[in-house]
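dumping this here so i dont lose it
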């Protein structure tokens, strides 16, 4: 997972495979903040999070 919270560094929070076929990453963010992010999978495949709080046309957005 990459976003403004890790300076868009793909190595900072890599997605991990779960037993049910989904991917996950654990990130602690400050309360009452808003962040842009995207997911980056193998093969440089970028994708949005369908469960994000919002989308701004380019990135997913999360509000804590």
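and the seq i came up w/
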């Amino acid at each position: 997972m990459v976003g403004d919270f890790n300076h868009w560094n793909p190595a900072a929070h890599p997605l991990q495979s779960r037993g049910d076929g989904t991917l996950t990453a654990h990130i602690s963010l400050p309360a009452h903040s808003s962040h842009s992010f995207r997911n980056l999978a193998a093969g440089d495949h970028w994708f949005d999070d369908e469960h994000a709080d919002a989308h701004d046309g380019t990135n997913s957005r999360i509000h804590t």
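The chain has no helices and seven strands.
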